[in-house]
Design a protein that fits this description.
- By secondary structure, the protein is α+β, with helices and mostly antiparallel strands.
- It is built from 12 helices and 9 strands.
- The protein folds into 2 domains: 312 residues, CorA soluble domain-like (Beta Polymerase, domain 2, 2-Layer Sandwich); 98 residues, no CATH class.
- Helix 6 crosses helix 7 and helix 8 runs antiparallel to helix 10.
- The N and C termini lie far apart (90 Å).
Length: 450
């Protein structure tokens, strides 16, 4: 009967997966009692025989009973939280043949991150899923160690840096005899990606600080970032958008870092239990052959190394959490500065508009006053009321202009000039009050003094 997770999951189409080959690693004891480890590939059609141990592209058939670990990695073929990179029958075959953790499929579909171990009479199972993110990946590993056969089976899924994980395993094949080492390698690679992600965000905020010319570590003491610090010209809108992007990524990174720190604590506790004998290692299954005796004696040293490295990476994770908080504070500082600058600019624009409006209002008042006072009086009184033209001539006589017309011009022109001069003096005095107005507060002070 299909489980709840199987009903939710979207398994890969066998026709699509069949064209892919899968990366594998196998470790075995050779005829000289030495541990060998080698990387290879296997086609999807040969996968069933590889899973049940009847065929291998790496281990000679004569040494098939002396396998110590088998690793297979399935890639993430499609994006989507519920989409898997293998068909449903393949998953059932892997889980049954390798006795994987019952919660393996649930971990594949989970985005929150988990590290769990399950101890039974015959096997030790470890399940690890990093906190998922498009920026750092969706790495998952399911480990099953069979004590009687002294064999560890490892299923990696959706590795962001498969080559990095495989190279780390091949550098220390003797440590692959310890089941928790496979989880420790994945944890370290994931933490390295988190740190690179943090560096990228730090570089982005440094660019914003250069563009805004505000803030920046060491500025208070006159230090520069580099010997040749470039001048960055950025617009306020572009800086605000970049800060919003950084803020979003910081929220994701903060969750990843805190989850990684918590997962590091779980991994350290697991390795400590192995060192103290809480998890039964393969020492009881080691034969009396000289080579495997030596490997068994080195198990305790390998467990100690894994514990030390897990504790080291966990402390690095704690440092990253603190660094992320510092970057977040710098983002908040830049955001506050840009918002305040924007508000200040808007205030200046408002003051400038008010100032120009005030000037226009004064000018319009003067023009209106001149129009009201002089235009009606000049037009009506001068043209129609004054005796310039003689309209009472006899019948057939033409209108005659008075010989005293010059008196009109003698009076009108000086009077017009005098009034225009007075208007100019008044307008200049009124507009002169705005010369020292540079802000809204200056405008309010001037209005109070009027």
């Amino acid at each position: 009967m299909a489980s709840r997770e199987e009903k939710l999951a979207t398994f890969a189409d066998p026709s699509i997966v069949s064209s892919h080959s899968l990366n594998i690693i196998e470790g075995w004891i050779d005829s000289q009692q030495r541990l060998q480890a080698q990387r290879g590939k296997i086609s999807f059609h040969n996968l069933p025989r590889f899973l049940d141990g009847t065929s291998s592209p790496i281990v000679p058939q004569t040494h098939s009973s002396r396998r110590r670990f088998r690793i297979i990695s399935f890639p993430r073929l499609e994006n989507g939280r519920l989409k898997l990179g293998f068909p449903q029958p393949t998953y059932h075959q892997i889980r049954q043949s390798w006795c994987l953790h019952d919660l393996t499929l649930e971990a594949f579909l989970n985005n929150n991150g988990i590290l769990s171990s399950l101890e039974t009479q015959d096997t030790t199972c470890i399940l690890m899923k990093v906190a998922a993110s498009r920026s750092t990946g969706f790495d998952t590993v399911s480990i099953s160690h069979h004590r009687a056969a002294n064999l560890t089976n490892v299923l990696y899924y959706s590795l962001e840096n498969e080559d990095g994980v495989f190279d780390a395993l091949l550098q220390h094949p003797e440590r692959c005899l310890q089941p928790s080492f496979f989880a420790a390698v994945l944890y370290r690679c994931h933490q390295q990606r988190i740190e690179r992600f943090r560096v990228i965000l730090d570089d982005e905020i440094v660019g914003v600080e250069r563009g805004s010319k505000f803030g920046g570590p060491g500025r208070l003491f006159g230090h520069r970032y580099r010997h040749e610090e470039p001048v960055v010209e950025m617009q306020g809108d572009s800086m605000t958008k970049k800060l919003s992007y950084v803020q979003t990524e910081l929220a994701v990174l903060g969750h990843l870092a805190r989850s990684s720190l918590e997962m590091g604590g779980w991994l350290v506790e697991m390795a400590r239990q192995e060192r103290e004998g809480g998890l039964d290692t393969d020492a009881s299954a080691v034969t009396e052959e000289k080579g495997e005796k030596e490997l068994g004696m080195r198990m305790s040293e390998n467990v100690r190394k894994t514990l030390d490295e897990a504790e080291y990476v966990r402390r690095r994770a704690a440092t990253v959490v603190s660094q992320i908080q510092a970057v977040n504070d710098r983002v908040q500082s830049q955001t506050t500065f840009l918002l305040n600058s924007s508000l200040h600019n808007q205030t200046d624009y408002t003051a400038a508009i008010a100032l120009e409006t005030k000037k226009d209002s004064s000018a319009m008042k003067a023009i209106a006053a001149l129009t009201i006072v002089f235009l009606p009086g000049t037009f009506v009184a001068t043209v129609f009321s004054m005796n310039i033209f003689d309209w009472s001539g006899g019948e057939g006589a033409e209108p005659r202009m008075s010989k005293y017309i010059y008196v009109y011009w003698i009076v009108t022109i000086p009077l017009t000039l005098l009034v225009m001069f007075a208007w100019w003096v008044w307008l200049r005095r009124d507009l002169g009050r705005f010369r020292n107005v540079r802000s809204l507060s200056d405008l309010r002070t001037m209005e109070k003094n009027v």
